[in-house]
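Quiz preparation item.
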């Protein structure tokens, strides 16, 4: 997908709609939040982990643009079973990809966000779910 097709591609809009399947759940134990400095979007994320620290359940409360919501949907699709180290590594790799410093990481579905790479003001929104998950997972480590 080229940047010339615009930011809000059909793929991005369809992904954003997926978040209705992962609503906020007050019963999930670990909560995190993240805010994009560049656009003001926020995401609250709640999750549970197993004894080994792997994510077992996720709920989300997004206050983000469609790009941030689409990225959050991709996060939710593939985050279960991953732990703090996996999420940290993926977040770094995605940030490097967005900055043009590395090829696209192997997180499933990122090709759907290819058009958003041309919009640096949206990069923070793309990373929101990973940042909120890191916030929540840091709480599990401290517990």
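Solution:
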């Amino acid at each position: 997908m080229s940047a010339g097709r615009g930011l809000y591609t059909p793929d991005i809009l369809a992904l954003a709609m997926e978040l209705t399947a992962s609503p906020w759940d007050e019963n999930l134990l670990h909560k995190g939040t993240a805010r994009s400095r560049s656009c003001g979007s926020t995401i609250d994320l709640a999750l549970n982990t197993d004894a080994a620290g792997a994510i077992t359940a996720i709920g989300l409360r997004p206050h983000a643009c469609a790009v941030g919501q689409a990225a959050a949907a991709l996060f939710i699709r593939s985050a279960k079973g991953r732990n703090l180290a996996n999420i940290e590594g993926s977040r770094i790799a995605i940030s490097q990809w967005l900055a043009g410093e590395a090829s696209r990481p192997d997180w499933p579905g990122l090709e759907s966000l290819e058009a958003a790479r041309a919009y640096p003001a949206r990069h923070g929104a793309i990373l929101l779910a990973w940042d909120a998950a890191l916030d929540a997972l840091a709480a599990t480590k401290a517990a």
